[in-house]
Amino acid sequence: MSTGFANEVASLGEIGLHHESKIDSVIWLHQNGAPSSMDLFDYKPYLHEMDGQDIPEHFLQGVTTSSAGGIGKLYVDPKRTWKQYGKSQAWFSDLLPNLAECADDMTFLRSCKTVGATHSISILKMNTGELRPGRPSLGAWVSYALGSRNSDLPPYVVMYNRTQPRAGTPNWSAGFLPAMHQGTAFLPGESPILYLQRPDLVSTAQQHSALSFLKEFDSKNPNYQYDTELQARLRTFGLAERMQQAAAQVVDVKNENEETKQLYGIDDPISGSYGQVLLRARRLVENGVRFVHVISGHPEGDASIVDWDAHSNLPKNHTVMAGMVDKPIAGLIKDLKARGLLERTLVVWAQEFGRTPWGESGNGRDHNPYGYTQWMAGGGLKKGFSYGATDEIGLNILDPNTAVDTYDLHATVLHLMGLDHMKTTFVHNNRAERPTVNFGKVVHDVLI
């Protein structure tokens, strides 16, 4: 590698490991819009028995509704069928036939909860631990604490197919951390990184000389050591120079063989765009990116379906959205496993909240922060294992002692990366800030 500006590592990490890490990288799969657990992988026989009836009053203690329509009749999609898979005998609906094949690699958190029942608020909490913009995202904390594993690529990358989530860029912000730790957003499509090629009339030597002069000039500014925005800009210029050589090959999926492309569903118009993003995610962690934040957008076709948010016509919405993510996510797990990467990678299915067991607008579901399922797969976890449960209709957590809040999920992810969430701190306004604020516990019961 050349000396000077281009040799500067993106980040050395300010904290380092607190204990032995179980994983090197995280692929954070945000299912934008919040799917219904009880229509995917949380089978509720009693709900099926009670379809079309009023909710027994004892299920509603402590529950408030967020929609003008209030509480409707219990609802079940009449077309859904369910089967158990693997040695773990985990339940999956017919919407997820490919992911069901990975049942014994998955660790279910069936007692998740959050606060807030509007997308922008709960999405920010899911990604940053705060209900308002301004705090660092989980990926930014990882970048700050551990730094880069590959100086030619960003430590924290954000990708999506077709649409960003509600609340936008604050979901991958560095907040009050040094600006260099914010997520680097890659665009959807064939060319995710803009301006990766130098202008035709600028040589490699000319570009390098100009960047070296810029660094020398700005570093003499007396405020340089305090101006994290300026430091981040200069480091970004250096990273961009290195990425011109390395990143183009990493993000280019064209050279993957046809079998791999089919594994991710890239040949299908419904799953193709999301599959391309997840194949790119595998290539990024394979090349040392620590945190890949993937937001589910929507497939080509029906413009009425833009995410998982199914307040009406849930059968149509979830058929399309599950068709988009099922094969690519299963392909990602299988591909990581076949390459020996799954044991050092953590795949997380995350969502802002769950859905209600009652119907809204006839055949939709409202927002539910009281109890829902998320899952993980990868290193350091008990595989084919389920933790916690919701009640018989999937509305509320069955045992409050097993509740998994956003803070708990963040604490567990950081623990697997070798970080103690209570010791990962940054002084801001004379206060030692932590990724989980002052909350959170590691869910040790899911760890090996």
Notes on the structure:
The protein has helices at residues 45-49, 97-100, 119-128, 138-146, 204-219, 228-251, 258-263, 272-286, 314-338, 406-416; strands spanning 25-30, 82-85, 90-93, 106-112, 156-160, 184-185, 291-295, 345-350, 354-355, 367-368, 372-378, 385-387, 426-428, 431-433. A hairpin with a 4-residue loop joins strand 2 and strand 3 (90-93). With 448 residues, it is an alpha/beta fold. The model is unreliable at 1-11 (pLDDT under 50). Helix 5 (204-219) packs antiparallel against helix 6 (228-251) and helix 8 (272-286) packs parallel to helix 9.
The computed structural class is: alpha/beta
Which sequence of SSEs, written as H and E, runs from N to C? EHEEHEHHEEHHHHEHEEEEEHEE
- What Rg, in angstroms, do the CA atoms define? 22 Å
Helix content: 25-40%
Strand elements, count: 14
Arithmetic mean pLDDT: 90
Count of helix runs = 10
Q: Beta-strand percentage?
A: 5-15%
**Main sheet properties:** 8 strands, mixed
Q: Give the CA-CA distance, first to last residue.
A: 40 Å
Strand order of the largest sheet: 6-5-7-1-8-11-4-12
Which spans of ≥5 residues are poorly predicted at pLDDT below 50? 1-11
Q: Outline, from the CA principal axes? A: globular
